[in-house]
Design a protein that fits this description.
This protein is an alpha/beta fold. It is built from six helices and eight strands. The strands form three sheets. A four-stranded mixed β-sheet has the order 3-2-1-4, with helices on both faces. Strands 5-6 form a two-stranded parallel ribbon.
């Protein structure tokens, strides 16, 4: 079996660095998007996770990078899932990611509402776990899922980044809680 080389493309934003890990197949596919975390840049994390990876160029990846930059500049960008490979995700997580991808900018949903939408009304915690390991943050906007009481819940990039992303998208807060006036599902 031929081993596929993982390529890395990193971009910086006001929210930290993001590294796109992707592979060349018939067309390029994104395997994962990594966020910076305290003490480790996204690129350092990606190089540890994908040893032997290299920097490379592809027009579709460059287009995704431009769209991410536009998003971080505050523009309304619709991301496609067409070349995000979900083969490492369980069928349940794939459903959660697709549901989360459907939440429009400026809206939030709750873990419980997403679970109900997927026909699993008692699956709020499972939805939270699926989103905690979302391989495509921003493209799949897991920052738009909050707790039923409006508390923002967890996020791979930390609570401050989650709040800043929601504020940038026009979501309103009442103190520490999201105002639940624009809820999806």
């Amino acid at each position: 079996m031929r081993r596929t080389t993982t390529h890395l493309t990193t971009l910086d934003s006001r929210f930290g660095s993001f590294t796109i890990a992707w592979e060349r197949r018939e067309a390029p596919v994104v395997v994962e998007i990594l966020l910076s975390k305290p003490g480790a840049s996204s690129e350092e994390r990606a190089k540890r996770r994908y040893p032997g990876s290299d920097e490379s160029y592809d027009p579709r990846i460059d287009e995704l990078t431009r769209d991410l930059k536009r998003y971080f500049d505050g523009r309304d960008v619709s991301f496609s899932l067409d070349f995000m490979t979900m083969e490492r995700c369980t069928p349940f997580q794939q459903g959660v990611l697709r549901a989360e991808h459907g939440i429009p900018r400026g809206y939030v949903s709750t873990y419980g509402r997403i679970a109900g939408h997927l026909g699993r009304p008692r699956g709020a915690r499972a939805v939270g776990r699926a989103l905690a390991t979302n391989p495509f943050p921003i493209v799949v906007p897991c920052h738009r899922a909050v707790r039923s009481d409006g508390a923002i819940g967890g996020y791979q990039g930390g609570a401050d980044m989650k709040r800043a992303l929601l504020v940038m998208e026009g979501v309103m807060f009442d103190g520490e809680r999201v105002k639940m006036n624009r809820v999806f599902y």
